[in-house]
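re: that chain from earlier
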Amino acid sequence: MGKLTEVFFRIGNTTFGGGYITMVMLGRDLVGKRGWMKQDDYDLAFSLARITPGTNIIAFCAAVGSLLRGWRGAFLAVMAVTLPSALMAVLLQQGFESWRSHPYALSAIGVTSAAVTGMMWSTVWMLARPYIGGSSLRDKWVRTTRAVLLLGGSCGAAWLGVTPVPIILVAMVVGFLWLDEDRPTGDKQ
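^ sequence. v structure.
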């Protein structure tokens, strides 16, 4: 239980740019580096956290902690991620209020905003990459076309003000109807 708490504490409190970046970094560690969970379990936790009302990172940590160590894992994962970050946010807010008219502070905030934007695009790429390409030329074309259409359509719809629920429902229907022949179906042979 201590190792799990340490992972959530370390990654949850040393990544910046929002919950998605933290979720991707946790996935790299828990799935790729440590092998504590399967990619499908990570994808499920990520998807459920995304559609859960409220803060997505908290729902994600609770889901992953629960999958790995039950309710105690869920509780410790959420506490390890939220308490230090909340304290840091209060201290940063106090510092910002004290320095908000200082030109160096404003410059630092502008540069940080640009870096966070880059990290968020990196997260988008890491999440979309497994769904691009395939084993044959036809599969590559079909999977890449589907990924580009869904990613572009989702971004366009969100930019036009469509709320997440209809976007997710349409993507779910498209995914249901437009099967991925390269991805395993879960049937045992």
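The chain has a mean pLDDT of 84.
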